[in-house]
Design a protein that fits this description.
By secondary structure, the chain is of the alpha/beta class. It has one domain: 3-Layer(aba) Sandwich (Rossmann fold). 46% of the residues lie in helices and 16% in strands. It is built from 22 helices and 16 strands. A six-stranded mixed beta sheet has the order 4-5-15-10-11-14, sandwiched between helices. It has a five-stranded parallel beta sheet with strand order 9-6-7-8-16, with helices on both faces. The chain is globular. The mean pLDDT is 94.
Amino acid sequence: MKYISTRSKIKPVNSAEAILQGLAPDGGLFVPESIPKMKLEEIGKLVGLPYAKCAGIILQKFLTDYTEDELFECAELAYNWFDVSAKVPLSILVNDPKNPKFPIGVAELWHGPTYAFKDLALQILPRLMTYALRKTGETKEILILVATSGDTGKAALAGFADVPQTKIMVFYPNGGVSKIQRLQMVTQVGDNVNVTAVNGNFDDAQTGVKKIFSDEKIREQLAAANIKLSSANSINWGRLVPQIAYYFSSYAEFVKSNQLKLGDVVNIVVPTGNFGNILAAYYAKRMGLPVKRLICASNVNNVLTEFFRTGVYNRNREFHKTISPSMDILISSNLERLLYHEAGHTDQIKRFMTQLNTTGKYKIDTPLKKKLDKIFYADFATEEETANMIKEVFGHFKYIVDPHTAVALKVLSNYRRDTRDMTPIIIASTASAFKFTSSVLTALGENIDGIDDLKQLDKLEIIAKKRIPKNLAKLNGAKILHEDVCEKEEMTDRVLTFAANKNEN
């Protein structure tokens, strides 16, 4: 399997090279030359398999320059850290257990060390990258640059901390993540890590990182210091491809529950901002997973909803800080990969991205929009609707969800209202409710005045009747190690400074 760019006809590279580079040399994203297929009988064989085994099987389809043993080893080591034996348990919500019609399978993607779905990719990516270094004979130190809207940062830090031949630098929007998300990042230990807040929003941080990647002078400066850039954001194929596995695993779990028969179709609902998680579901569908519709759920930063409804992508709008901060994004990077696969013309994709950078918007043609209409439904939830859904789900099922999952549930409700389609559902539940205590407790009607976020963990533990995740409990009293703040214009200098120093923190 070879990988090519979304923007021009570069020489194809193998997966190890694509993973190390992160971003294609022309600024595009790496995509597979073709999308592999899974026959229904192959999907059936996943039922009952351990998650690591399932993940290894899916990865083999894409990472063909890795051996089967290498991929299974990477998966086993990555998912040993998870706090439940199933790794990705499927909680099935039904209105009446005695008459389980129209089941909703909630894929709990957040049982890793940082309690967000990003762990499923970012615990395995450093291992894939370590093998890639060996396979390519790369001797340079790899500097991982990350822009985060909340969860990617900590998951990447946890994955890459003290990994040999790597450094990792994370930029997050100052004041734009939850207090617990921030504490998770700024208390991260490791001789090779740096965490810096950017005065701006996530798009400012992400744009800054992309500019650094595409600046040839910076690459030359780093190369002279024996350093090579790479990414742990979902622009990196090695970060995106592990996410495909959990849609196959969740479908297999649904079949195992006897509430779905092998071959029955499902709809998949994904709360998304950067479009990576739902793009992984798209790849699963293209591979042969029986998926009828992909439902794209946004918060009030609803640029994706407008795009799928009108065919116009327009980031020129007010930016909102919400209670679902990991979705507070106006530039959805992975949409570029979808457009490439459905439009198939690098010149057209390059034109779209140039227009986005220069004017802030672009418009797709009618034939392409009609193709997307058959695959996607898109809607968004307001802040009030999100809070109400947290309360409603807890009241009805005694099941606690975080704000991002609540957005997905509200959009699912809208979809079923609009279409009358009661196909069984898989919902991507992207984070533990304990990472968003103030929003969840407020939604449940609790008074949290004067109670700090760490004390709120105790309150939520009592209400939810769930133990506080151990790594969040450890935040109480943890030492703050990273207090750097910069302007978006200063990001390049901060990167060069960190690259030049082995132990800055």
